[in-house]
Design brief:
60s Ribosomal Protein L30, Chain: A; 22 strands; Rossmann fold; serine biosynthesis; 17 helices; D-3-phosphoglycerate dehydrogenase; amino-acid biosynthesis; binds 1,4-dihydronicotinamide adenine dinucleotide; 4 domains; seven-stranded parallel beta sheet
């Protein structure tokens, strides 16, 4: 039974999927301190959060069973991603579910700024009927600058067109083609600051976007501009903004997010009549909360059940078509890595993976992760596909990936070579229609083995009677041989024998096999 801890008031309707899952037990908690979370997290396989809970390295270190942290939303700045990767914990988010909610809040903010609705409301309910102070501006024919043209920024741009606004956009990843389709003119941050009547930011907070609008930008800003931040606190320099308002450069600002949340009681935004604030409500609609909770629940179930998933933040995204091609090979890759890892002694210095056939047309990185995980997992605890590459790198294991288009016997082939200081071993496998996973080569020897059950890999000198000796020794020790294959290049030369047995070969029997003078190496391979 998987235990899932749901924090931060995530929508019950959205997580119904988890309540309904027969293999999942859900517990909901709110407002736990870091210490309180550390004290209980060891009981859980998955943790679901919004933005309030800080998932620190300490929390993850205490989460000995923790496989996945799910963020019901976009921004993962409350989760220590590097620590999660080191610890092999998958971090997933729900990037699509709250786009419209945040876009609509941005418009609510823009119109509130244009028409000073919150200020007018406050006065009116205070008993004043003031129709002179609150003369607003129209959005029509105004220039809107959108910094960050991703999901939310693009939706904002689309709606702005309906209001008759001219949209200028800045995003390093926005192509001219896409900008044209959206009806957006491209410009730099400074160009946009010079001409925009409204500026809204929709980027993540990164070292590049921190204080993207600060003193120098306010200096060149069009007088009377209005600024909106429904993305992340810190993208706009809060103190520089207050100064720009005081100097009459900025006519008003609307902020849903703050450099520190919640802001201190004496934060200068809180008593400034030109600044509208909301408590990080961008995603707070019934629809968005349900959407993100559904998305994150589906992904959590996939991860807990070892099924493919798509929204991992600490792993490269895998497009659905690539995943469809690669997924059937994940099991084979894992087994090749795991079996080969048991054939060698000493520290692995290099893993060479070679793909051929239909596997050459796609980005095979997710499959390589499975192979590396297989290689490492017999030696290291807690290896998974999230941290496999990181752990390999931290152990200075060189990973070489090759794609071979040369004609091969198989329509697809995955070949893995492990190198240590003293030896090098190869295992190759394929998926055969009607037969499934097969190992088709070990070192230089062609074989045909299903990678399952108990395998014995024996290196020996090709001499008459060896097969009989091995069979007799196993038989007298009650180890029944199910299949046996022998590979050799030349008569009397080096050869391998690979056997599948009905039960594991006891260690003392392996020791007896090793005593046979013709046998150079005996390895029991388990999966
Ligand atoms: N207030 C709230 O409750 C919510 C806030 N957000 C925040 O809104 C932001 C945007 O979310 P999405 O549109 O879903 O993300 P997204 O990933 O679709 O878009 C972000 C865009 O920012 C661009 N970008 C990155 N660095 C940039 C830079 N230096 N200059 C200009 N553009 C840059 C990226 O290329 C990308 O197109 C995120 O920070 C997210 O956390 C999202 C949902 C709710
Ligand atoms: O969960 C929330 O309400 C915050 C949403 C948010 O900031 C995000 O998705 O990045």
């Amino acid at each position: 039974m998987f235990k899932v801890l749901v924090m931060d008031g995530i929508s019950d309707m959205g997580i119904q999927l988890l309540y309904d899952a027969p293999d999942v037990e859900v517990e909901k908690k709110n407002g736990l301190s870091e210490d309180e979370l550390v004290a209980i997290i060891a009981d859980y396989d998955a943790l679901l959060v919004r933005s309030a809970t800080k998932v620190t390295d300490r929390v993850m270190a205490a989460g000995s069973r923790l496989k996945v942290v799910g963020r019901a939303g976009v921004g993962v700045d409350n989760i220590d991603l590097a620590a999660a990767t080191n610890r092999g914990i998958v971090v997933i988010n729900a990037p699509d579910g709250n786009t419209i909610a945040t876009c609509e809040l941005t418009f609510a903010m823009m119109m509130s700024l244009a028409r000073t609705i919150p200020q007018a409301y406050k006065k009116t309910i205070g008993g004043e009927w003031d129709r002179k102070t609150f003369v607003g501006v129209e959005l029509r024919n105004k220039v809107l600058g959108v910094l960050g043209m991703g999901r939310i920024g693009s939706e904002v741009a689309r709606r702005a067109k309906a209001f008759g606004m001219e949209v200028r956009g800045y995003d390093p990843f926005l192509t001219e083609d896409r900008a044209e389709k959206l009806g957006v003119k491209l410009g730099t941050v400074d160009e946009i600051c010079r001409v925009a009547d409204f500026i809204t930011v929709h980027t993540p907070l990164t070292s590049e976007t921190r204080h993207m609008i600060s003193g120098p930008q306010f200096e060149i800003m069009k007088k009377g501009a209005r600024i909106i931040n429904c993305a992340r606190g810190g993208i706009i320099d809060e103190m520089a903004l207050v100064e720009a308002i005081d100097q009459g450069i900025v006519a008003g600002a609307a902020f849903d997010v703050f450099e520190q949340e919640p802001p201190r009681a004496d934060h200068p935004f809180l008593n400034n009549p030109k600044i509208i604030v909301t408590p990080h409500l961008g995603a707070s609609t019934v629809e968005a909360q349900e959407n993100v909770a559904i998305d994150v629940s589906e992904e959590v179930l996939h991860i807990l059940r070892d099924e493919p998933f798509k929204n991992a933040v600490n792993m490269p995204q895998v497009p659905a078509n690539v995943l469809n091609t690669l997924q059937p090979y994940f099991g084979l890759g894992l087994k090749l890595g795991a079996l080969l890892g048991q054939t060698i002694d000493g520290a692995v210095s290099e893993i060479v993976v070679s793909y051929s056939g239909e596997l050459t047309g796609v980005d095979t990185a997710p499959l390589t992760r499975h192979i590396v995980k297989g290689v490492l997992e017999k030696q290291l605890e807690g290896v998974n596909i999230v941290n496999a590459m990181h752990l390999a790198k931290s152990r200075e294991i060189n990973i070489v990936v090759q794609q071979s288009t040369a004609a091969k016997t198989f329509t697809n082939l995955v070949s893995v070579t492990l190198k240590t200081k003293n030896e090098e071993r190869l295992m190759a496998g394929t998926l055969l229609s009607g037969y499934g996973e097969r190992i088709v080569q070990i070192d230089q020897y062609p074989v045909d083995i299903a990678p399952a059950g108990n395998l014995l890999l024996i290196s020996h000198t090709d001499k008459p009677g060896i097969i009989g000796k091995v069979g007799t020794l196993l038989g007298t020790n009650d180890v029944n041989i199910a299949t046996m294959q022998v590979g050799r290049k030349v008569i009397g030369g080096q050869a391998i024998m690979i056997l599948t047995t009905d039960k594991q070969t006891p260690t003392d029997v392996i020791a007896q096999l090793e005593q046979l003078p013709e046998l150079t190496k005996v390895r029991e391979l388990t999966l």
